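Let us practice reading a record.
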Amino acid sequence: MKINDMPIEALDEGFSGIVRPGSVGQLRLPDLIAHRPEKWRFERLAAILTKAVEAAENSLSQDAAARMLDGMQSFSDFKGDFLVEWRPGHHEPAFETLINAVLLEWGESEICHEVAR
């Protein structure tokens, strides 16, 4: 996932921002949300997400990786506290484990997984 030409929308009076990648074919991509709307923060979220998808492909399957990506509604970084919001009916515990492991590789350990309502 590349952030290059994607607009960053300001949220909370400019204190945070969101990038809405949309979809690739039938696959929905999660919104990326960061505490400060700085491009490098979104690039980092995209890089972490890319590594998680690669890990899912390698340890589960390509189909599982696609389900994981499609099931994520948003992926957020609020000052080092990460949140994955899952679409209803798309959460699988194996996906949490993969994302948590990738975040640990990046030196991050504060993560919460939440199922949207």
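A brief commentary: Helices lie at 39-59, 62-71, 93-105.
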